[in-house]
Amino acid sequence: MTPQDRLLAALTAHGCQTGTLHVLDEAGGQLKLTAQIGLPPHVAEIVAVVPVGKGMAGLAAERCEPVQTCNLQTDTTGDIRPGAKAVPVQASIAVPMMLDGRLRGVLGFAKAEYHEWTPGELAALAATATEVAEQLG
User: Which domain holds residue 10?
Assistant: First the structure.
């Protein structure tokens, strides 16, 4: 199964239309985009390499915990980079892919509509992120 197939399966399982799969390059301290669904081409170029600590995926990697927004278009937390608003989604979450206590990458999930992630959904997203990390090796 390709990274693109894994991402599509993860998005489908959680009712999301758009998403990203970044793998950690430990040597460079960066996240590298391995698969994406639904990003405008110019946004895909921008997020092709994400420094740990920058943007939602980078913050999720740095904190080793999910970073989320209920509405990407109106978020004022400072966690969302201005270019992210070019993606036609509202609810968005970046979930670190942890395996054996180590960060392997970050899965991004997004829904077209406003959505507040419940504790149960957060647990399910974390389980999916771990499963993808295991599949990637």
Answer: 3-136
- What's the distance, CA 18 to chain centroid? 10
| Total number of domains in the chain | 1
pLDDT tens, position by position, 32-57: 999 999 998 988 998 999 999 998 89
Q: What is the mean pLDDT of residues 98-125?
A: 93
pLDDT tens digit sequence for 74-87: 656 655 555 555 56
pTM of the model: 0.88
Q: Is the distance from CB of 54 to CB of 63 less than 8 angstroms? A: no
DSSP readout, 4-54?
HHHHHHHHHHTT-SEEEEEEEETTTTEEEEEEEES--HHHHHHTSEEETTS
Look at phi and psi of residue 36 and say left if phi exceeds 0, alpha if psi is from -120 to 50, else beta.
beta
Residue/partner pairs of 23-29 with CB below 8 Å, 24 or more apart: 23/104, 23/105, 23/136, 24/52, 24/61, 24/103, 24/104, 24/105, 24/106
Q: Domain holding 122: CATH number?
A: 3.30.450.40
